[in-house]
Hints:
The protein has helices spanning 13-20, 59-66, 79-88, 93-102, 112-131, 145-155, 162-168, 183-189; strands at 2-6, 27-30, 48-51, 70-76, 137-141. The chain is an alpha/beta fold. It has one domain: P-loop containing nucleotide triphosphate hydrolases (Rossmann fold), CATH 3.40.50. Strands 2-3-1-4-5 form a 5-stranded parallel β-sheet, sandwiched between helices. The chain is globular and about 50 Å long.
Amino acid sequence: MNVFVLSTGRCGSVTFDKACCHISNYSSAHESRARILGDGHFEYPANHIEIDNRLSWFLGRLDKVYGQDAFYVHLTRDMERVANSYKKRFGSGIIRGYAKGMMMGRHPKSVAKELCLDYCKTVNSNIELFLKDKPLKMDFALENAENDFSQFWQRIAAEGDFQGALAEWKVSHNSSPDGFSLFKLFSKNE
Length: 190
């Protein structure tokens, strides 16, 4: 069985992968096929856990390939915290794609937080709609990571170093450093 962890990003997805690396009966990766075009984008090995926030932009295609035959996790974090984290990275990555591409333009710094919140609401709504008819799914809140990961471990019948996996949730992976912001770079070069 394949497992897909869907999220907005900035909500513990790297940590989720680090924890899953302690599972011996599944492979696990974070954004492993994000750069591959076409059908190859969805050619994951069997018994693989893929954690990739970009999959939320490919839900129709993901459904055509895996449909109800996979286990899906909706990974969330307090939306204000996600938006604040994205605001620090406003000029890069997926939030830049949303602001410039989806929302069609350059936006003043004064609306950066509003754009980040809008992105979170949009992505979470899309994931919720996608999961509506999926029988194998669970919600996973970063704020309840240890309990939710225990449930996840049981639901997918994971084997391996459970204590090592739980320990990963006590480490901050891929956090945005204080003061980190690409907004100036974004607004000057675009």
